[in-house]
Design a protein that fits this description.
- With 264 residues, the protein is α+β, with helices and mostly antiparallel strands.
- The longest helix has 28 residues.
- The protein has a 5-stranded antiparallel β-sheet, with no helix packed on it.
- The N terminus is likely disordered.
- It is 39% helix and 12% strand.
- The radius of gyration is 26 Å and the shape is globular.
- It folds into 3 domains: 78 residues, Cytochrome c-like domain (Cytochrome Bc1 Complex, Chain D, domain 2); 72 residues, Orthogonal Bundle (Cytochrome Bc1 Complex, Chain D, domain 2), CATH 1.10.760; 45 residues, Roll (SH3 type barrels).
- Bound molecules: heme C (2 copies).
Length: 264
C-alpha cells in the first residue's frame, strides 16, 4: 500500500529529470559546431578559397571584405552568430549570403574561427596621430566623411573602415578612388537641356526622372525630358589624392584609417 503511493512520484521525478537533461543538453548542444575539428577546418579552408577569398583575402587578411584575423565580430563571435552571418550574409552591406549546404556553412565557420586566432597583421608604416591631423586639416576629408553618426554623408562613414578594408584597399581608395565604387556611391553628372550641369551621387533613377545628392548634399530631382545627357565616366565623387598629398602623408592617413575599427 505504502509502496504504491510512493512509487509514482519517484517515477515522475525521474522522468522529469530525464526530460530536463534532454532539453538542457539539446539547448546546449544545438548552436555548437559539429565540424569544429581539424578535418572540418581543412574542408572549410577549401570552401573559403572558392566562396570568400576574393573579398576576404586568401588568408582572411581582408580586402574588399573585412579582416577576419582579429577575432572581433560586430555581429557576435559565437558559433550561432557566425553561422547566421555566413548563411544569410549581412543585409545592407556587400557581404552576401553563401550558396552552400548547412554542413558546409559549419565548416566555413570552423575555418573563420581558426582565422580569428591568428596573430594581428601589419598595421602600416605611417603615423596614426599625423594621419588624423591630415584627415581633419589639409586633406579636407571631413567635407564628405564622418567618423561616427554625426557629419556629412557624401562619402561612406569611416568609423570602422579599418575593420572592413585592408591597408592596400584603403591606400587604393586614396590614390585611385574610382577603382572600386560601391553602388550606393556611384557619381553621375546630369546636364540639362538649358545647359545646367550637376554632379552628384545617384540616389534613384527610372525612365521618367533621376535623383542625385549634389556636392553640397542637396537633393536634386530632374525629369528626363529636360535632361540632355547623363555622364557616368567619373564614377567617384572622391578626388584622387596622389597629386595633392606626399607619399608620407598618404602613409600616415592609411595608418590612421586602418586604426578605425569601430570599437568603443
Ligand atoms: C562580395 C564580397 C564578400 C564576400 C564574397 C564575402 N564577404 Fe564576408 N564580408 C564582406 C564585407 C564588406 C564585410 C563587412 C561588412 C560590414 O560589417 O560592413 C564582411 C564581413 C564578414 C564577417 C564579419 C561579420 C562581423 O560580425 O563583423 C564574416 C565572419 C564574414 N564576412 C565571413 C565571410 C565568409 C565565410 C564568406 C564566404 C562564404 C564571405 N564572408 C564572403 C564582404 C564579403
Ligand atoms: C568630395 C567628397 C570627398 C572627399 C573630399 C573625400 N572623400 Fe573619401 N570618398 C568619397 C566618396 C563618394 C567615396 C565612395 C566612392 C569611392 O569609393 O570612391 C569615398 C570613399 C573613401 C574611402 C573608401 C571607404 C570605404 O568604405 O570603402 C576612403 C578610405 C576614403 N574615402 C578616405 C578619404 C580621405 C582620407 C579623404 C581626405 C584625404 C577623403 N576620403 C576625401 C568622397 C570624398
Amino acid at each position: 500500500m505504502m509502496d504504491r503511493c510512493i512509487l509514482p512520484p519517484i517515477g515522475m521525478r525521474l522522468l522529469f529529470g530525464i526530460w530536463c537533461c534532454t532539453v538542457g543538453l539539446a539547448a546546449w548542444a544545438q548552436p555548437r559546431n559539429p565540424f569544429d575539428t581539424p578535418e572540418g577546418q581543412a574542408q572549410g579552408r577549401a570552401l573559403f578559397q572558392t566562396h570568400c577569398s576574393y573579398c576576404h583575402g586568401a588568408r582572411g587578411e581582408g580586402g574588399r571584405g573585412a579582416d577576419l584575423t582579429t577575432g572581433h565580430y560586430r555581429r557576435g563571435g559565437e558559433d550561432a552568430n557566425l553561422f547566421a552571418t555566413v548563411r544569410n550574409g549581412i543585409p545592407g552591406t556587400e557581404m552576401p549570403a553563401v550558396r552552400v549546404t548547412d554542413d558546409e556553412v559549419w565548416k566555413l565557420v570552423a575555418f573563420v574561427k581558426f582565422l580569428g586566432t591568428m596573430p594581428a597583421g601589419e598595421r602600416g608604416a605611417g603615423n596614426v596621430a599625423a594621419g588624423k591631423q591630415i584627415f581633419e586639416g589639409k586633406g579636407k576629408c571631413t567635407q564628405c566623411h564622418s567618423i561616427g553618426p554625426e557629419g556629412p554623408s557624401l562619402g561612406p562613414d569611416l568609423s570602422d573602415v579599418g575593420r572592413r578594408r585592408d591597408l592596400q584597399y584603403i591606400e587604393e581608395s586614396l590614390l585611385r578612388p574610382e577603382a572600386d565604387v560601391p553602388v550606393k556611391y556611384r557619381a553621375v553628372e546630369v546636364v540639362t537641356k538649358s545647359g545646367e550641369s550637376v554632379r552628384g551621387i545617384r540616389l534613384n533613377e527610372d525612365d521618367i526622372s533621376i535623383q542625385v545628392r549634389d556636392g553640397q548634399e542637396r537633393l536634386r530631382s530632374f525629369l528626363k525630358e529636360i535632361v540632355r545627357e547623363i555622364r557616368r565616366d567619373k564614377p567617384s565623387m572622391m578626388p584622387a589624392f596622389g597629386p595633392v598629398l606626399s607619399k608620407r602623408e598618404i602613409e600616415d592617413l592609411v595608418a590612421f584609417l586602418s586604426s578605425l575599427r569601430g570599437l568603443p
